[in-house]
Amino acid sequence: MDIKETIFELENKLQQPDVRKSVEQLNDLISDDLIEFGSSGLVYTKQDVLGNLPASSEIKFVMTDFKINILSADIVQSTFKTEKTDIETGKISRSLRSSLWRNANGKWRMIFHQGTPFGVKSNL
């Protein structure tokens, strides 16, 4: 598996409901020094993610335009778009997303993530 496939698989895992509900799986995928600038405008640490995400409502994600930028032998940036649907409310939101992944001792973990909301332009 090449690096793009590896990082895509990791990003995709973080969007799966069973992973988002599992403190153990989240703990394995994100670094202890994670910083996230959420699409909500709030800043999160790993402790925030582990404390809040498993209790949050179920979200269905669609990821598009996935790309990576290899910054060094052990740091990779991913960029992509998401459309997420809250299963309970049906609310749909779209975000531009970027993550930094660090490989330490053969294990990739997310060290940074940012989600920036974007809207659909209209020709009206």
TrEMBL record:
Gene3D superfamilies, per database record: 3.10.450.50
Residue ranges of domain DUF4440 in the record: 7-110
UniProt superkingdom: Bacteria
Pfam families attached to this UniProt entry: DUF4440
Protein name in the entry: DUF4440 domain-containing protein
Organism name: Candidatus Yanofskybacteria bacterium GW2011_GWA2_44_9
